[in-house]
């Protein structure tokens, strides 16, 4: 079973691509959701985050406040690297565990690792190939704003902390440019699936 990375910047359409691949029969390991789960439940991770970032990231119940943590972690590259170095080893461990479990079931076309920071975290070294969903900044900002969870400034700040599409495209095995409709993206994903997964 192929272990395929799926990545893309904020608002690129990565989540839509992930849903399409799931419908085509792939198992989706959501690395970003897994990181949030680890942050919520893993006491060692929580302790290390508080040691690194201090009480500024805590709420009135002395628990980590995700909004406060995001504000601190996304202020510059160094802070983001520190946060990722605390959480990512646990994500990698869970990824390997899930891959063994899903491979043994023999019912999925492939194992898709959906993650925004696949190259930044060196997760690509754990994978057979990486699919990049790229999109122009105009479309990405528009899509991200439509979600209503981040301001334009937050979107731009987070985009600046991620590798550019050009840098990612040099590393990716396959790049899909998502500057059109969802229907067009679906066709491109199907083409990728037939060429690289369903063989």
Features:
199 residues; alpha/beta; 9 helices; globular
Summarize the structure.
Helix content is 57%, strand content 12%. The chain is of the alpha/beta class.
Provide structural commentary.
This protein has helices at 14-23, 31-41, 43-53, 66-73, 77-105, 137-147, 152-161, 165-171, 182-197, and strands spanning 3-7, 27-30, 111-114, 129-134, 174-177. It starts with a strand and ends with a helix. The relative contact order is 0.23. Strands 2-3-1-4-5 form a five-stranded parallel β-sheet, sandwiched between helices. It is built from nine helices and five strands. With 199 residues, the protein is an alpha/beta fold.
Numbering strands along the chain, what is their spatial order in the largest sheet? 2-3-1-4-5
pLDDT < 50 runs, ≥5 residues: none
How widely separated are the two ends? 11 Å
The average pLDDT is 91
CA gyration radius, whole angstroms:
17 Å
Alpha-beta classification: alpha/beta
Helix proportion of residues, in percent? 55-70%
Strand and helix layout:
Blueprint: E1 3-7, H1 14-23, E2 27-30, H2 31-41, H3 43-53, H4 66-73, H5 77-105, E3 111-114, E4 129-134, H6 137-147, H7 152-161, H8 165-171, E5 174-177, H9 182-197
Parallel strand pairs: 1-3, 1-4, 2-3, 4-5
Helix pairs in contact: 1-9, 2-5, 3-5
């Amino acid at each position: 079973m192929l272990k395929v990375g799926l990545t893309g910047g904020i608002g690129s359409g990565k989540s839509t691509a992930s849903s399409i691949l799931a419908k085509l029969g792939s198992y989706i390991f959501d690395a970003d959701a897994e990181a949030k789960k680890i942050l919520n439940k893993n006491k060692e991770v929580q302790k290390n985050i508080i040691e690194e970032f201090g009480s500024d990231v805590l709420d009135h119940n002395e628990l980590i406040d995700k909004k406060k943590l995001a504000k601190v972690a996304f202020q510059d590259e160094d802070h983001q690297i520190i946060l990722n170095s605390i959480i990512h080893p646990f994500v990698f461990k869970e990824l390997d565990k899930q891959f063994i479990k899903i491979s043994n079931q023999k019912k999925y076309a492939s194992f898709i690792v959906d993650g925004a920071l696949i190259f930044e975290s060196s997760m690509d070294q754990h994978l057979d190939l990486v699919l990049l969903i790229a999109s122009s900044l105009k479309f990405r900002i528009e899509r991200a704003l439509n979600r209503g969870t981040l301001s334009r400034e937050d979107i731009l700040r987070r985009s600046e902390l991620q590798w550019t599409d050009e840098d990612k495209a040099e590393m990716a095995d396959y790049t899909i440019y998502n500057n059109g409709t969802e229907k067009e993206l679906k066709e491109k994903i199907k083409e990728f699936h037939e060429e690289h997964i369903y063989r």
